[in-house]
Amino acid sequence: MAGAHEGRRIGLVTSPKGKPDEWSERLWEAYKHYGEADVRYVQACNRFLASMLKHRLYETIELVHSLMHLFVIKREAPNPEKYMSGIPSIDLAEMRKANLHDELDVYRHWYSQHIKWPPKCLCEREQVAVGLERKWRTHPWFLTACVQVARRSLREDGFDHLEFYTSREKHEVGQPIPEGETLITRASRRMEAYLTSGAWRIDDVPMEDLEDVLGRGLSVPRDPDEDRRTYINRVKDQLDDRLVRAMQKATEIALHPRVPLQGRLLNPSNKHEEMLVRMMFGEDVASIAKAMEGALEVKRPRRTVRARTILIASHLGFVPPST
Questions:
Q1: Residue 289 CB: number of other CB atoms within 10 A?
Q2: What is the pLDDT of residues 45-81, one digit of tens each?
Q3: In the chain, where the domains are located
Q4: Which helix (H) or strand (E) holds 133?
Q5: Given pLDDT bands bounded at 50, 70 and 90, which one contains residue 262?
Q6: Which residues lie below 8 Å from residue 58, measured CB to CB, with a gap of 6+?
Q7: Under a CB-based contact definition with an 8 Å cutoff, are residues 288 and 304 in contact?
């Protein structure tokens, strides 16, 4: 995930003070054009996802499954036949009946079933200008993350499955639970690692597999009569082309936070994101304050819970900045 410089304000697209000596002008201009994600914003997003997996795993998986089935209906799944029978087929029929046409419809439907606060679902897709280009940006970013998980789940068997554990070992479905043990439910290790690492991409396409305009990887054979210096320069030019293309291919633009936090790093021990998850799913302020008193070393815990929840909800795009 892209880095950030300690002195800048959260939410601003900035770049290093000057061009690194080894960068070409073309690469530098493209980098300045597309900007860079703020690592502190990404960390807050990942903490929210971790809290969702911890406290609301089933609801998160339900949203992912519904998005998967939407892509089946839209004929965007590589193996749609797997979903035409059994429980998935029931979900497909319900989605058709509910007239859910796109990801926004699916999210709004899921939101109306599960989320208590904020009462209004902030969910939209807008076109924004990036230089001379027009690109789509989806709000909230949580939906973008779940869409990417759904698409990956359609490609990788078992990615979205739940895993069960006792205190001693992984528990296989259908086996008796050992006496005295409590069954713990978790997302698959692959899914959990994917969500909480930021690999689901908040602002950029992966840059590890660089391709040219024809989708070919980097392979530059040396001409028989080509000297070493010319060959190295040609390889560098082609690498620049691929790096620029990787930035151009980004399908989602970072939803940079709209609430300035004076450049401060949110203290993870203050549990802003976990308070938001609890509030969204209907816990009242008093019970949140009681459950999280270790993160509320203040004289007015309920007021602090409200303030932190509204701050992080605005920061992550669940409520408008003026709320």
A1: 21
A2: 888 988 998 999 999 999 999 999 999 988 888 888 8
A3: 25-204+250-315
A4: strand 133-139
A5: very low
A6: 185
A7: no
